[in-house]
Amino acid sequence: MGGTAVVVGGGIGGLAAAIGLRRIGWDVTVVERASTLEDAGAGISLAANGLRALDELGVGEAVRDASRGQYNGGTRTPQGGWLARMDGAALEKAVGTPIMGIPRSTLHRLLRGSLPAESLLIGAEAASVEQIDATTVRVGCGGTVLDADLVVAADGIGSKARSRLFPDHPGPVYGGSTVLRAITEKTIDLPTDFALTWGHGAEFGHIAFPDGRAEWHAVLNLPAGTRFTDPLAELRRRFHTWHSPIPDLLDATRPAAVLHHDINELRTPLPSYTAGRTALLGDAAHAMTPHLGQGACQALEDAVTLASALATEPTVEAALTRYDAERRPRSQAIARAARQAGKMGQQLSHPLAVALRNTAMRLTPSRAATHMILRHHTWLPPQLP
Question: Could you tell me the pTM of the whole model?
């Protein structure tokens, strides 16, 4: 089965969906409202499930070549004591790869490079998506009208397509934390490939990149909409007593490079990821908190699963039914697990609760900790033609 598709949104999920659809013989147009693709963003960690999806899309090797494996690291206290260590080699033995760290802009460029330039419609917002008959969906983009057999709505957590398809859904809500992040301007000598440090209602973490730079992030329990006049100075004030290399990471960063976003999520699960001939994908379908590092990986799983269903089912309707049945239970379960991980991790602030959690983590064998990670990483993608 072949056809024409319009993908709304040129982020990781949208680009991956377009690659998957082209691999099974579909004509695809990606509509991205940004007028220029500046490849903004900090860093991202890709687990085995996301990397396997990228392999099936034909870009896994290029992504691995541009990434750095997270072989050593773990979770620490602000004073530097270890709560848990993760053995990347053991994880690689179990699932074939360690977690890989890559700049988000690099991942975007690699995905975009797998698509012909003419398939990208940049600077055009999908103002309307309308199913005009049983087999045709019409997308209005300003003066451009696109008719397609399928629309893939990968337009993010604030998805307009989702709002139109499910007008009674409450939409995204604030998850209780805000995140500041950046990539260092300078190379920095780091003792670990990655690390998380948990304080009281605060987290600081880093991911090392192959070129010697690093991504860092700071997550804070603050009211939604909180912003700082000088974010880097504020973080230096909050984290100056935390263990090395946290102050060094902040010192290696340009103030203008710091990004600040509130963490929002779709706390109320959607009743379906499809409606008519429109499929929701990625954050548009299941935006989750970042506490398991699975947001992008789940979008990549969506992309491969959708392409496989369309390649093997006799009709678009049957394919979308299968896509929803396969993706909704898993992605919504992982979203719930991510929310719970945040409540038991970064968001804990009461001193007694923090002390109990830290003791439990220190007493948990490393093998058990690795097993908990594997619950989400062992997904195997369907094979694409």
Answer: 0.96
Asked, for residue 179, whether it belongs to a domain, the answer is no
41 located within any domain: yes
Residue 186 located in a structural domain:
no
For residue 17, what are the domain limits? 4-69+98-172+266-341
CATH number at residue 307: 3.50.50.60
Residue 132 lies in a domain: yes
What does each of the 385 residues of the chain score in pLDDT, given as a tens digit?
A: 679 999 999 999 999 999 999 999 999 999 998 876 655 679 999 999 999 999 999 999 999 999 999 999 999 999 999 999 988 898 898 899 999 999 999 999 999 999 999 999 988 889 888 898 989 999 998 788 999 999 999 999 999 999 999 999 999 999 999 999 999 999 999 999 999 999 999 999 999 999 999 999 999 999 999 999 999 999 999 999 999 999 999 999 999 999 999 999 999 999 999 999 999 999 999 999 999 999 999 999 999 999 999 999 999 999 999 999 999 999 999 999 999 999 999 999 999 999 999 999 999 887 776 777 778 899 999 999 8
In order, the DSSP letters of 142-166 are TTEEEEESEEEE---TT-HHHHHH-
Number of domains, the chain: 1
- DSSP annotation string for 3-66: -EEEEE--SHHHHHHHHHHHHTT-EEEEEE--SS------EEEE-HHHHHHHHHHT-HHHHHHT
